[in-house]
Amino acid sequence: MDTLATDFESFAPVSAGNLTVRLADSPEEIAAAQSLRYRVFYDEMRAIPSPEMKALRLDFDSFDEVCDHLLVFCKDRTDLPCGVVGTYRILRHSIAKRNQGFYSANEFDLKPLLEVDGEIMELGRSCVDLEYRNRPTMQLLWQAIAAYVQHYKIEILFGCASLAGTEPEELKLPLSYLYHFHLAPEEIRTRAIENRYVDLNWIDKEEIEFRPAWKTLPPLIKGYIRLGGFVGDGAVVDSQFNTTDVSIIVKTKLITEKYFRHYERSADWSSDR
Can you tell me the distance from the alpha carbon of 144 to that of 13, in angstroms, rounded to the nearest whole number? Predict the structure, then answer.
């Protein structure tokens, strides 16, 4: 398996107040991100860890070895491993195709995205410590992601986004809203893999009221939609994480500087895988 060799070190860290965002540059910093992920996903959100994860109190998988790990550091939090209070995991296609592919492929058929000319990247395993789920943290994360997108000339970013709960019928309003109003164009439309496919279309479009439906969406999905994002066809139930997942796709040409400024002003935060 390749070890990811990124040249992102040429970018200056993004800082504001006591927070700094940059890529992890050591195994210890990646472990700090895994520790944060464990606290958020398993302690807070009640996902089910493997025995090894539980013993180590780390969330990890084989993708960690080849991904870039974007981290938020708080210089005042000496009580936390490396002071890490936020993380996002990034995997570019140029790296994924030399290794085991993309994490999202466990749930969605990514063929339309893999055929796109130019570089694409997957965002995932995102979470922020409860105390830091606020606008300044989001601003810094997206400033760094914007720089990453520009540096690597990313055409499309994508990933799995989660709604809490494993009973799709209880999520029929947000799922139907996403299907009728934000379904991806066919040429980039991913689809839930057949043996896990859950229909998004539970309610007729004419019966959906925008405001109530919008309020049911998790903050992270709202953020992607504000950036001009789409969802793929179908959802997947993830019993381990107690979620129902949708595929998010964003054309980066839609993410102008204006979009990023709007996102920084208005988006709130939630964790996601």
Answer: 8
Identify the CA nearest to 244 among candidates 158, 176, 149, 151. 176
Sheet holding 154-164, edge to edge: 14-16, 19-23, 68-74, 84-92, 119-128, 154-164, 243-251, 230-238, 191-192, 108-109
193: exposed, middle or buried (Cβ count in 10 Å: 0-12, 13-18, 19+): middle
Burial class of residue 88, CB neighbours in 10 A (0-12, 13-18, 19+)? buried
- The residue among 106, 78, 87, 99 whose CA lies nearest residue 34 is 87
pTM for this entry = 0.89
d(CA 133, CA 268): 8
- Cα separation, 93 vs 71, in Å, equals 21
Cα–Cα distance list, 109 to 53, 158, 168 (Å)? 28, 12, 20
- CA distances from residue 135 to 132, 139, 176 in whole angstroms, order as listed: 9, 6, 29
Could you give all domains of the chain from N- to C-terminal order, each with its CATH number? 8-266 (3.40.630.30)
pLDDT digits (tens, 9 = 90+) for 5-26: 455 555 678 888 899 999 999 9
